[in-house]
Amino acid sequence: EIVLTQSPGTLSLSPGERATLSCRASQSVSSSYLAWYQQKPGQAPRLLIYGASNRASGIPDRFSGSGSGTDFTLTISRLEPEDFAVYYCQQHGSSLWTFGQGTKVEFK
Amino acid sequence: EVQLVQSGGGLVKPGGSLRLSCAASGFTFSSYNMNWVRQAPGKGLEWVSSISSGSGYMYYADSVKGRFTISRENAKKSLYLQMKSLRAEDTAVYYCARDLRGGWKSFDYWGQGTLVTVSS
C-alpha cells in the first residue's frame, strides 16, 4: 500500500500570502491518479486538483498542482480568507485509494 | 444539479449491523463508478470501498474487507453500504462520492455525510 505523507502538518499564513503544501508518496504514483481536496469544518471534501495538475470545475486559478513520481505540490498563489481549511492529497493504485493525513492552513 | 443525499446512519452496538444509503440525482447514475469514504472524529479521510458503474467490480479497504459490502441499484439511482460486525473503530462520518469522469480515479461530488457511532 502506498503511504502519502503531507507536510507541513500546519501552515500558519496571512491572507495574500503564498501557500505551498507537499505530498510525498512511499513509492511512485501515477500522476493521472493524484488528487487534492479541500475540507472545511462540518463540510464534505471538495475536489480541487486531479491528475496532479488539472483544476476541477469551478476551482479558482490561484490553486495549482504540480509534481510527479513521489513528490507532489499544491500551491495557493495568494490566500483568500475562504482558503483557510484542511487539504488532503489522494492517490489510486493497485485497486486501492489512500489519502494523506492532511495539512491545515490556518490564520497566522 | 448533481446531488448525493445520504441516509441510514446512527448509533449501533459493537457487533451490530447498519446499512447506509446514498440517493443520486442530477446525473446518469448508471454511468459512474461510486465510492464510500469515512472520517473518524477529528481525523483524516479514509477510503472504504468502490464499485464500478455496472457492479462488475468492487474494492474494499483491508480494514473493512469481509465485514462491509458495497452495492448499487442503478434503476433506483442508489448506492449502499452494508456494514456488519461493527467495531468501535468504525465510528466515523461516512461519505458517498462520485468518480470523476475520464478515469482519473478522483471524487468530484460528495454526499453530505452520515454519522455512524458504534458504542455500547
Describe this structure in words.
The complex is a heterodimer of chains A (108) and B (120). In chain A, the strands form 2 sheets. In chain A, strands 2, 4, 5, 6, 8, 9 and 10 form a 7-stranded mixed beta sheet that branches. Chain A has a 3-stranded antiparallel beta sheet with strand order 1-3-7, with no helix packed on it. Helix content of chain A is 0%, strand content 58%. Chain A is an all-beta fold and 108 residues long. In chain A, strand 5 and strand 6 form a beta hairpin. Chain B is 0% helix and 51% strand. Chain B has strands spanning 3-7, 10-12, 18-25, 34-39, 45-51, 58-60, 68-73, 78-83, 92-99, 107-110, 114-118. In chain B, strands 2, 4, 5, 6, 9, 10 and 11 form a 7-stranded mixed beta sheet that branches. Chain B has a 4-stranded antiparallel beta sheet with strand order 1-3-8-7, with no helix packed on it. Chain B is globular and about 40 Å long. Chains A and B meet through strand 4, strand 5, strand 8 and strand 9 of A and strand 5 and strand 10 of B.
Overall structural class of chain B, as computed from helix and strand content, comes to mainly beta
Order of helices and strands of chain A: EEEEEEEEEE
Largest sheet of chain B: 7 strands, mixed
Determine the most extensive contact between two protein chains: A-B, 26 and 22 residues
Helical run tally of chain A = 0
- Largest sheet, strands/sense/barrel of chain A: 7 strands, mixed
Q: How would you describe the shape of chain B?
A: globular
What proportion strand of chain B?
Answer: over 45%
Radius of gyration of chain B: 14 Å
The tally of helices of chain B reads 0
Task: Give the topology, please.
The complex is a heterodimer of chains A (108) and B (120).
Chain A lengths: L3 E4 L2 E4 L5 E11 L4 E6 L6 E5 L3 E2 L7 E14 L9 E8 L2 E4 L3 E5 L1
Parallel strand pairs in A: 2-10
Antiparallel strand pairs in A: 1-3, 3-7, 4-5, 4-8, 5-6, 8-9, 8-10
Chain B lengths: L2 E5 L2 E3 L5 E8 L8 E6 L5 E7 L6 E3 L7 E6 L4 E6 L8 E8 L7 E4 L3 E5 L2
Parallel strand pairs in B: 2-11
Antiparallel strand pairs in B: 1-3, 3-8, 4-5, 4-9, 5-6, 7-8, 9-10, 9-11
